[in-house]
Every structure is written in structure tokens, then in C-alpha cells.
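sorry for the late reply, my laptop died twice this morning and i had to redo everyting from scratch. anyway the thing you sent over, i finally got around to it. pasting the sequence first so we're on the same page, its 138 residues, then the predicted structure underneath. double check i copied it right bc i was rushing
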Amino acid sequence: MEPPVKRRLSRREAQDLDIEIQFLERLVDRDPGYVEALEALGDAYGLRGRSADGLAIDERLRTLRPGDPVIRFNLACSLALIGEPERACRELEHALDLGFRDFRSLQRDPDLASARKHPAFHRVNAKVSALTTSHPPA
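ok and here's the structure:
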């Protein structure tokens, strides 16, 4: 699946998203371990351009589900967006170690642009190469 193209929200879309964010924030305040609500809130923050808030959510999710490779990938995206490409690459390596295999997203997700430009991304590419050599995709 191709990453979504980011576009500017209309005024109405932004208002609707703000209402959704408020609802989700109240929901996770009541149940801090509600993973699905946290994931939705992180996505909503991302759509709204609230990268630091999205990072905080992704870090909470990593604590709740440290073995989830998709959560680690999303955390890497958040780190790259706030200007932490080295940390983003470390999270990508963890995601790969945990079983993340969406190699296309590693190369195309626009959130990871700064990480792909960082020298540490060579380690990520090396790990992908090793994984595809030892276990070619079906």
C-alpha cells in the first residue's frame, strides 16, 4: 500500500479532526491503556501536524506494546518528523528485528525522509538486504 499523499485540510476537515482529537484525548485519559484509541489519536495528531504530540503517543504505545513492529515503525516516523533521524533509524532496526517487513514503506514513507538521508539509514538498508537475502519475499 502506498503511503497517503499529504494534503492541506479544509477548514471543515480541520474542525472535524479537532473534535475527534478532543474525543480521543478524553477517552485515553479515562483508559490510558486503550491501545486502539491511542493509535487513532496518534494518527489524528499526525494529520493535524502535531508531531510532538504524535511522538508522545508513539512512546506510550511502545511502552504498552514493546514487541509490536508496527508501533516501532510509527515511532521511527515520529522521531524523523521531529528531527531525530539517528533515533528513528534505531527504531527502524528494532522494528525489523521484531518482524516488520513492509520494506516499501521504509523507502517511500514521506515521514521518514530525514532518516533516509542520515548515514545511520545504511544500517537499516543493510538489515533489509540481509533479511531479503536470507528470506526472500513470497
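Residues 82 and 124 are 19 Å apart (CA to CA).
thats about all i looked at so far, will dig more tmrw
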